[in-house]
Amino acid sequence: MTTAHDMSENAPREVIAQTLREEILTGRLAPGDRLREADLAARFGVSRVPVREALSQLQSEGFVTLVRYRGATVSATSGSAARELIQIRRGLEVLAAQLAAERRGGDVADDLARVVELGRSAAVNLAHADHPPLVLRFHTLVVEAAGNHQLRLMLDPLLRRVSWIFDQHLRERSHDSWSDHAAIAQAILSGSPVQAGYLMGEHIAKDERLLDELDHH
């Protein structure tokens, strides 16, 4: 829940954008839902200016569609757009995995191992609701482990958007991906950049194939 303290500590635009982004990512706001400036201004206790700025920011991230004279709606991403994003993600995340392996996971090595344990446990216990946030956490940790600030700035929003796209298009996504994640983590923690990059590339290629299969159904 957004509080007055949140607003006082951060720019209203950032608070509004962060809140709406989280509601989109968690499904509380669904593709096609209207985002009316007046309602949002009243909800957050601000003028329409920071609301417009927040919606513009979310548009640039791909979460919101702005149509002149009609306002803002939550975006619905096509399969082709999803594929393009995954292709970009593959190139950047292979690099992240290689850099992370050069640093053997850096300061988040223990966190990386732990999230793999949690993911495997969720898969064994069929805890389907836990799967998407744990997958996102794993990939976010790989980027953090790379130790490259500019790469993280590029990949963090991309990973959030790809996670959201999978929730729209691939709700039945396989939970056996944790064997892939475990192998990637092992390569990173053992300091094997070539293997880590290769495994990450193969892992993301599976996501591309899943989208291809979806298109043919």
From TrEMBL:
Task: Output the Pfam families linked to this UniProt entry.
Answer: FCD, GntR
What GO molecular function terms would the record report?
A: DNA binding; DNA-binding transcription factor activity
Which controlled-vocabulary keywords does the entry list? DNA-binding, Transcription, Transcription regulation
What name has this protein been given in UniProt? DNA-binding GntR family transcriptional regulator
Q: Lineage of the source organism?
A: Bacteria, Bacillati, Actinomycetota, Actinomycetes, Mycobacteriales
Q: Which SUPFAM superfamilies match?
A: GntR ligand-binding domain-like, Winged helix' DNA-binding domain
- List the source organism: Nocardia transvalensis
Whether DNA-binding counts among this entry's keywords is yes
Does this UniProt record's set of keywords contain Acetylation?
A: no
The HTH gntR-type domain, residue ranges: 10-77
